[in-house]
Amino acid sequence: MANIQKRDNGKWRARYRDLDGKEHARHFDRKVDAQRWIDEVTASLVTGQYVDPRAGRVSFETYAKRWEDSLIAGEARERITDNALRLHLIPALGARTMAAIRRNDVQVLFKALSGQLSPGSVRNVYDVLVRLMTAAVDDKVISETPCRKITLPPLADEEITPPTVAQVAAMVEAMPPYICAAIVVLAGSGLRIGELLGLKVSDVDFKLGTIRIERQRLQSGLIGPPKTSKSRRTVPVGEVVTDALLAHLAARPSKEWLFTMEEGEPLNYRRWKTEWNCARRALQAAEKEAAEREGRKPVELPHMVTHDLRHFFASALIAGGASVKQVQIVLGHASAVITLRIYAHLWPGEEDRTRSVMDAVLGGLRTGCGQLGDATHESAGQAA
User: Fold this and answer.
1) Which CATH superfamily includes the segment(s) 159-348?
2) Strands 12-17 and 2-6, how do they pair?
3) How sure is the predictor about 345, in pLDDT bands with cuts at 50, 70 and 90?
4) Across the strands, what pairs with 202?
5) Average pLDDT over residues 269-290
6) What are 175-228's pLDDT values in tens digits?
7) Who has the most CB within 10 Å: 4, 69, 126, 264?
8) What is the DSSP track for 137-170?
9) Can you tell me the distance from the alpha carbon of 51 to that of 138, in angstroms, rounded to the nearest whole number?
10) Predicted model pTM
11) Cα–Cα distance between 303 and 163 in angstroms, integer?
């Protein structure tokens, strides 16, 4: 399998054959170095840790595309993986060979992404790279993953604060007339922005007061399926939303897409983001002018993003007594766990309910810390 021979030029040539029968050789000045290399290779072959040195020469882009094509995953996971590779990982690492990517290269990449993306999005990209590099180790393309001891931005642990009705109304007024109805729809239905941009006129049932979510517009501009299987849903909406849509269609008739740009093309992410940011700047400028007229310090307006309108819708449902299951269904969350993780603090009365339950269970303690009377014969919710 392996041998060492001295060459005419005084060098020591070490050779071995890998598991596929391919021969590999290196030259050394000293026999001891050649023997050490052969011993290391032999040990890796015996323990199953051997990696063909030529395997790591494949480019990151080539391996990443091959890996992505082999995946079996749900719609949401496929979308996250594709976005991470296409938008971030391949542009940064695509030309590098797999074996040349080091831990520090990964750390530098994610430090840069931390200044561009939210902590959650950064972690989504990192998860994709970890899975890819782990697969490369399993495929014997590289000997170890460079995704070790990488510092990522901490996730915000703050409770969400939904915008007020006044803030939503201000955004409606600040947005251009051709899309101001979209603010009403988002606030009154809880749709994701991609779902709204993918709406067709036929998705709205004005008689029943519902909006059917069948698709979403991706940031690339292409139309794709909803985020998850649970995101394909029918959302009940009130007259405020349907009236806003009727007025919108009366001003801008359309036979296909519900919201279009002034040029007639379907409204896309880029245009929406531009108009949203312009509206926010206009509101802040108006506040500054009002403050100058009134001789006071201008108030810094909350930094609203489009997704806050989804939070507004959810908080209104919760305040109105909606159950966790109902909120999950209309928002299109994959599970109630997600709903609770985001909005648990908004459900009213839970603290009072906790107090009432514990008072009922521990009622016997009211007479002192000695005898519990009948309470000693019962445990929480069960008779002894």
Assistant:
1) Intergrase catalytic core (1.10.443.10)
2) antiparallel
3) confident
4) none
5) 93
6) 999 999 999 999 999 999 999 999 999 999 999 999 999 999 988 888 888 887
7) 126
8) HHTTSSSS-S-SS---PPPP-PPP-PPPHHHHHH
9) 10
10) 0.63
11) 10
How buried is residue 152: exposed, middle or buried, by Cβ count under 10 Å (0-12/13-18/19+)?
middle
Tens of pLDDT, residues 238-254: 999 999 999 999 999 99
CA distance 284 to 290: 10
For the stretch 341-347, contacts whose Cβ atoms lie closer than 8 Å and that sit 24 or more positions apart, written own/partner, are: 342/160, 342/311, 342/314, 343/160, 343/311, 343/314, 343/315, 343/318, 345/159, 346/162, 346/314, 346/315, 346/318, 346/319, 347/318
Which amino acid belongs to residue 69? D
Domain range 57-138, its CATH number among 3.40.50.790, 3.40.50.720, 1.10.150.130, 3.40.640.10: 1.10.150.130
Amino acid at the residue 345: H
For the chain, domain boundaries: 2-50, 57-138, 159-348, 350-379
